[in-house]
Amino acid sequence: MQTYDEPARRLPVTRQADVIVVGGGPAGLAAAIASARMGARTVLIEQFGYLGGTATASLMACINGFRNQVEPDATQTVRGLAEEIVLRLKELDGLGRSPYPQKSYPTEPGRLEYSYAIDTERFKFATLQLCVDAGVDLLFHTYFCDTIVAHGQVTGVIVENKSGRQALLGTVVVDASGDGDVAARAGAPFWQTHMDEAPRLNDAIMYRIALGGSRPADLHACDFGSTAVVWGPGVPAMPCTDAEALSRAEVEARLRVYQDLEAKKTREPALAAARIVETPPLLGIRQTRFIQGEYRLTADDAIEGRRFQDVVAISSCPIIHYYGYRRYLEHEGYDIPYRCLVPLQVESLLVAGRCISSDQQPYESHRAMVPIMAIGQAAGVAAALCGRTGVQPRALDTDLLQQELLAQNAQLRLGG
Ligand SMILES: Cc1cc2nc3c(=O)[nH]c(=O)nc-3n(C[C@H](O)[C@H](O)[C@H](O)COP(=O)(O)OP(=O)(O)OC[C@H]3O[C@@H](n4cnc5c(N)ncnc54)[C@H](O)[C@@H]3O)c2cc1C
User: Fold this and answer.
1) Residue 368's domain is classified under what CATH number?
2) Structural domain count of the chain
3) What is the model's pTM?
4) What is the pLDDT of residue 326?
5) Using a 6 Å cutoff on CB, does residue 27 contact ligand 1?
6) Structural domain boundaries, residue 241
7) How far is the CA of 42 from the centre of ligand 1 (A)?
8) Which of 145, 253, 289, 340 is the most exposed place for a label (fewest CB within 10 A)?
9) CA 39 to CA 149: how far, in whole Å?
10) How many angstroms separate the Cα of 50 from the Cα of each of 44, 128, 177, 278, 309?
């Protein structure tokens, strides 16, 4: 391959923060709010001009995972910021009808449903308002490019935006990029699942339709009355940290969108007048890198509902796909230990969201956006505590972390 030597440049240092969060998806926005609420100077870097990540930029308008589905009592396993966001959406009339079969709950504190369809515009608004109120310093339309690492310790990040290339310095960096971009650049060990290990997983493009009057009896979509968000064409799961592969996947999925709606109309005549009114900027990407942490969650941990001393969140979502298409494996909920958020070999760094240290099977459960927000909240609290106490994430006192999470209404025990 032909190469080019880029000349070295002197960069302006535009921010000096306690906590830098890279990525404003469900994990990153929760991390930033939690960190800023603890008084840490918190910067959030996001490539788009709004928050929500896959929820908004990929129109994945269905957030799952507030409670397990184990009869008879179906326990709520996530509270904290994720619950606060749903209650705020309820006030804003920002909840639709989820396609998931589930018991009905009144959407009150401690009484949330398993899954909610979210009005993605109100979700952007509500999460932005929470960030602004918490004092998060938002840097939108900004792309994370590289890390600044000294003696194995991340001391800042390099970003690009319309103003050019800049350096931001921080005491702790939270990688909530979904893809583990920061951790990978900093030299933390990671792996990417071979696609044949998860053969039924597809990346997919979602799209919004205006129903145009008539509506099917069973829409099986995120239902917002006159519009609905439907699952569009899938493409085989791609290594989407490869720009060429991502680009090919976008082309392949987008060229099939209208054909996909026509096929839906053939199967469901009540959709005859439906029109596509929105496709999102980004294909829905399920998984890319997983960052090797101090602990790697296993299938047995999830299936046996294993409890950990350093629990920071609980995931009780079904494990789909891996055990057969749509064959749900029910479990009460398993602990996510803090150590899964602490990457090996690199200091001053935490990971949050879908790239935490986990095998495929438990990932299939905690990748849902509700446990992902709980994990993000934990990373934000941990980062703020590290900044405050001058302790490395690897050495953080997890009793202190748990006390702070409980004070923020997080759920760390089943039923308690
Ligand atoms: C097809 C599909 C279906 C799904 N179905 C559901 C479902 O029904 N219910 C559910 O709850 N979950 C579902 N999920 C899973 C869920 O959406 C994700 O696991 C979750 O959004 C991951 O959150 P995250 O914050 O870790 O990452 P993301 O949502 O990927 O957010 C990452 C953020 O970081 C930003 N970013 C990334 N790189 C950079 C960079 N270099 N510089 C600046 N910003 C950057 C991105 O713009 C984004 O905002 C689905 C996912 C897919 C793809």
Assistant:
1) 3.50.50.60
2) 2
3) 0.97
4) 42
5) yes
6) 202-278
7) 21
8) 145
9) 25
10) 11, 7, 14, 17, 36
